[in-house]
């Protein structure tokens, strides 16, 4: 399978859906990837199950606050330099690149690196969605180390961390990212093909394209694009309304805040509050939590079905809020400890996307 420039619109749109509000602006990611594919040609996509055991797979991503990424783009070679810096440090030649998360920009950043370096890209990712901290991946649950990891800024500064735990990798890299202007490119979780098969969510890129095309098809046919996304994800519609308040701030390298959505149509008279840290983490309806991390909480434009990221939420937006199941491994005790509501400071047990509250 080849990923071509004409596939990027659907890929970025679907990735922004799975990104649950985070993962960076899909429009920016698509434009950057389009330029790379125009210059270097299509990228080969390889299924997780087809990776050789001894493959050297290097994920690459943008790290930082999505609010900053909108205005501070990576330089032309920053992304490939991050991969090359890690490869040099570990003394291995990469055979494949990968996405560490599904998100608008972080599903396209690896496309740019793959095009620039002429390497195939793995059809999968380390989460099946997006999470705000770099230890919050399924490879962590599988005992795979985040480091050595490289970090590169747009000015040409480069560094490598080799830490005692994945949580320490997040802590030190987050501090460096803040000093680099709250966004940087990282390459981390170097894995063999066997480790990728054990720890990745397979088929993520294909799923992103499928979701994106379902939205496009509904738009062309003037049918309900929100319903199309619900069907693709096996999720459910939680709330329909208008954004009446957004409290958002960029602190410690994250976009943190809350958004209030006043109900319309069947949701009239009800108020939903979304709580986010880059990604939506908790959805409360009339003061009661109805969906939480690790399952997906997704905000779409009600009319167009376009995903809306947390940094793009604005007063007056007419939105539909969905919940969809995460990869089941996130609901293990170890997964809940890593990404459950209490990790983020909410005194809640996890509420599954399809659970009736």
Order of helices and strands: EHHEEHHEHEHEEHEEHEHHEEEEEEEH
Largest sheet: 7 strands, antiparallel
Strand arrangement, largest sheet?
Answer: 15-14-13-12-11-17-16
In percent terms, what proportion of residues is strand?
Answer: 25-35%
Shape: globular
Regions with pLDDT < 50 over 5+ consecutive residues? none
Q: Any idea what the radius of gyration is? A: 19 Å
Put simply, the count of helices is 11
**What's the CATH superfamily of the largest domain, by name?**
CV3147-like domain
By CATH, the topology of the largest domain is CV3147-like fold
Q: How many β strands by DSSP?
A: 17
CATH class (first level) name of the largest domain = Alpha Beta
Question: How many structural domains?
Answer: 2
**End-to-end separation:** 42 Å
Mean pLDDT: 93
Organism: Kribbella jejuensis
InterPro entries: S-Me-THD-like_C, S-Me-THD_C_sf, S-Me-THD_N, S-Me-THD_N_sf
Pfam families: S-Me-THD_C, S-Me-THD_N
Domain S-Me-THD-like C-terminal: 165-349
């Amino acid at each position: 399978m080849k990923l071509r420039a004409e596939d990027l619109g659907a890929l970025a749109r679907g990735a922004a859906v799975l990104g649950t509000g985070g993962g960076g602006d899909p429009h920016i990611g698509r434009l950057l990837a389009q330029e790379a594919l125009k210059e270097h040609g299509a990228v080969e996509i390889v299924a997780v199950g087809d990776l050789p055991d001894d493959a050297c797979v290097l994920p690459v991503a943008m790290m930082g606050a999505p609010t900053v990424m909108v205005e501070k783009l990576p330089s032309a070679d920053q992304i490939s330099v991050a991969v090359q810096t890690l490869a040099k440090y570990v003394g291995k030649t990469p055979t494949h690149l990968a996405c560490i998360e599904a998100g608008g920009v972080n599903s396209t950043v690896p496309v740019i690196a793959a095009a620039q370096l002429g390497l195939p890209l793995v059809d999968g990712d380390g989460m099946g969605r997006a999470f705000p901290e770099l230890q919050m991946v399924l490879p962590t649950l599988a005992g795979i180390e985040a480091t050595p990891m490289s970090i590169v800024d747009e000015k040409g500064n480069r560094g490598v961390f080799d830490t005692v735990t994945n949580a320490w990798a997040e802590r030190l890299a987050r501090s460096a990212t803040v000093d680099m202007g709250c966004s940087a490119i990282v390459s981390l979780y170097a894995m063999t093909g066997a480790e990728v098969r054990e720890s990745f969510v397979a088929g993520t890129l294909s799923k992103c394209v499928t979701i994106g095309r379902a939205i496009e098809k509904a738009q062309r046919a003037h049918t309900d694009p929100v319903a199309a996304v619900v069907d693709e994800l096996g999720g459910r519609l939680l709330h329909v309304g208008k954004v009446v308040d957004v409290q958002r701030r960029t602190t410690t390298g994250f976009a943190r805040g809350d958004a209030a959505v006043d109900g319309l149509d069947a949701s009239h008279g009800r108020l939903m509050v979304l709580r986010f840290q880059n990604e939506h983490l908790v959805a409360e309806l009339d003061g009661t939590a109805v969906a939480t991390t690790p399952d997906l909480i997704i905000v779409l434009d009600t009319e167009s079905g376009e995903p809306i990221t947390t940094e793009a939420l604005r007063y007056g937006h007419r939105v539909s809020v969905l919940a969809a199941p995460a990869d089941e491994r996130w609901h293990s005790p170890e997964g809940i400890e890593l990404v459950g509501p209490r990790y983020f400071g909410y005194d809640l047990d996890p509420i599954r996307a399809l659970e009736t509250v």
